[in-house]
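tool_call: predict_structure(chain=1)
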Amino acid sequence: MAEAKRTGLRLGLYPGTFDPVTNGHLDIIGRAARLLDRLVVGVAISVGKNPLFSLEERVELVRAEMAAVSARTGTPIEVQPFDGLLMHFAQQIGVSVIVRGLRAVSDFDYEFAMAGMNYRLDPTIETVFLMASERHQFIQSRFVREVALLGGDISSFVPALTLQRTLQRLGRAESGR
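tool_result:
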């Protein structure tokens, strides 16, 4: 993929922990895929966030959910795990764009600071912000995990396979409730 910069392909990276992958993530990925020639979804290890799913499980779930997005947009989408500094991973795979989703003004402060730091680390890689669609602006993986752990219905926040696996992980029936 490092050849993408040399050939003029628009290769982007959408990083996150995806624990679990949400409909909001899928919305941003689908919209980013329409703007890019190829998209890599980078699944961060992030053990400090005490993930519900292992890295391998999160990669598997994201891959399964990406098949439909890739087919719908016609854009190749790869899913790769990564550990360490985001910019090192971005350089390693040769992207020219990092895609970040914004839900609210509170996200912007953090993302703006991160984009500035990333630019200082490598000014050849641009950060592009996509606003979450109105129906997904409130969805955060952390809240989805908490609602699920407390027995709430998460069926409107996550895709079907992710719902099934989350409920299985929590030892609950597959009704979403």
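agent: The mean pLDDT is 90. Proceeding to next step.
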